[in-house]
Please model this.
Amino acid sequence: MKKSILILLTLLIMHGSIAQRIAVMGALDEEIAILKEEMGKYKTQERGGIDFYLGKLKGKKIVLLKAGVGKVNSSYSTAVLMENYHPEALIFTGVAGGLAPDALPGDLVIGEKLVQYDYGQVDSLGFHVSPFRHPFDAQGEELFISGDSALISTSLEVAKAQTFLPISGREPRVFSGVIATGDLFVSSDEKAKWLYEEFGALATEMEGAAIGHICRTLGVPFVIIRSCSDNANNHARVNFNQFVGPASVNSAKIVLGILESMQ
Ligand code: ADE
Model:
């Protein structure tokens, strides 16, 4: 393609004259595997060391990527994604540790609000979480960041009509609420209890709030969908290894439903 045509196309995409893609993101290979398979034909583009898979899902143009684990990796991947593809919305799909006392591995949580539980200060009285300041500062400080209400409603509607893979012999339930993000794989009864009591969080994971803050800063609607592979308790690692596969599939099913509903 001639350089001038390429520049024109880039400008048209940036100014919204050409349909933008929906970004679909997971942190792990397992979390995006079923979506890659479902895409069938796709083109791989490497940008900033990240592989972006361009194709269609349920007739909708998407850009799929593996963000990597944790807030740094996922922030980097999100920044590269935004700079190169200017997506019209972002859907994150993956697993989490369930926190609500009655939540079990398999249950799904749609993130209404996200919080970085490990961002704060420490003093002689211990750790205190702080609100997060946006890079351009125009939007001030926020402790909780909200997902896009329309995408959250659609996720819940789609989930109601969905048949999920049973996990641990039971049909997963679907919740919406707070998701707590931090750079820790939580495998501790005590920490799980603290996250639930301190933030009312239903699930904990390692990327959602970081990605959400970038989306919020750039005005890109987003939703974080999580399926509990474990309960963030003392048995979390064993449960994670056991359920990461089917839990990832269940979360991806909601993504497919959302994209189908966008026709
Ligand atoms: N992702 C899945 N399980 C998790 C856990 N227990 N802690 C953090 N991230 C997770």
